[in-house]
Amino acid sequence: MIVSTPGRICLFGEHQDYLGLPVIAAAISKRIQIEGDFRDDNVVHFSLPDIGKQESFTLEYPLTYTKERDYFKSVLNVLNRKGHQLNRGLELTVSGTIPINSGTSSSSALLVSWVNFPGARVSVRINKFCIFIRSKTLYHTNG
């Protein structure tokens, strides 16, 4: 399975929405992509080749956060609290063309892709508005 989300630019500047100010946003052609499938165990493994990192954790709920903005675990904890537990591991590759820290929403695109990926894998129907709200909330907190 592959999930891909575009980056965006905000014409009035980044973080306007967090400040309660008007936002005019536009999608850009740069994207974040998550590709992967189930494993035969309960380990979730991410390969992040663009930044030369790997990340793995075991699906033992609630997942314990090990860093600030632990997006991968946050999404699974929220799904679990809503009664949608992912209980099979995943082997995933996260890649993209959105430059990190460039003001083009690489973190938001990663988060929206990740919210969509496990939801699709556990057959959860998540509407686009809920993805937006969950993603915005998860961006600022750990689940």
Protein topology:
Elements: E1 2-10, E2 25-38, E3 43-48, E4 53-58, H1 71-81, E5 90-96, H2 106-121, H3 128-140
Parallel strand pairs: 3-5
Antiparallel strand pairs: 1-2, 2-5, 3-4
Helix pairs in contact: 1-2, 2-3
Describe the 3D structure.
This protein is of the alpha+beta class. It has one domain: Ribosomal Protein S5, domain 2. The protein is built from three helices and five strands. The chain has helices at 71-81, 106-121, 128-140, and strands at residues 2-10, 25-38, 43-48, 53-58, 90-96. The protein has a five-stranded mixed beta sheet, with helices on one face. β3 and β4 (53-58) form a beta hairpin. α1 (71-81) crosses α2. It is globular. The mean pLDDT is 83.
Brief sketch in words of this structure:
With 143 residues, this protein is α+β, with helices and mostly antiparallel strands.
Give the overall form.
globular
What is the H-and-E element order?
Answer: EEEEHEHH
Secondary-structure content class = alpha+beta
Please report the first level of CATH classification, the CATH class: Alpha Beta
Name its key features.
single chain, 143 residues, alpha+beta, Ribosomal Protein S5, domain 2, globular
